[in-house]
Write the structure tokens for this entry.
Amino acid sequence: MLNLIFFGTPGAGKGTQAEIIAAERSLFHLSSGSILRQEIESGELGPEIKHYLDSGTLVPDSLITTMMENAITKNISGNGFIFDGYPRSISQAEALYKFFENNNLHLNAVINIEISEDEAKKRILLRGKTSGRSDDNPEVIAQRFKTYHEQTKPLLDYYQELGKIININGEPDIETVATNINQTIEEIKKPLQ
Ligand code: ADP
């Protein structure tokens, strides 16, 4: 089994890369944003969740943690997971750590996709033209970055202490970034073989 967290600012390309790598390696792509947007479409918690997404703040830890744990449990017999957008706070990371321990799962690495904030904002605005996402507009984007700096960025130190961080330059084109991620995955798989 291979379990990876894809980490980065909004717009860094986590989702794009997670989709590619998950398909290539038959991993399960677990995107917290997609799960939340599905719940907004058809779930009973939709209106409450939409309020957080549209303000660029995090939905409560307990809520997203429950949703993610249910999704992991459903797919636990597969080849592994790519987490995209979760964890996003220290409390979420601690919950995931406990869940992994209780379920005998191992976190292999945190792939930290690095890109400048200017480039990230450009990409989100471009995506906003076609994504139909109500949070891809300048006001909400600014709040999403604020939330990232205050609540999510501290996870870099948390995972650094656990020796899990692998930095990847997210600025090149999609294919190059995917190739570079795949290379690092081969490296971390070596001691497993
Ligand atoms: P991006 O990372 O590009 O901002 P996402 O689709 O990952 O986009 O997230 C969109 C929104 O969903 C976030 O701004 C937040 O409101 C909510 N969200 C996603 N993941 C989490 C999480 N792990 N905890 C709390 N809220 C989350």
In short: The chain has a mean pLDDT of 96. The radius of gyration is 16 Å. Residues 10-11, 32-33, 36, 52-53, 56-59, 64, 85-86, 88, 92, 135, 144 surround adenosine-5'-diphosphate (CB under 6 Å).
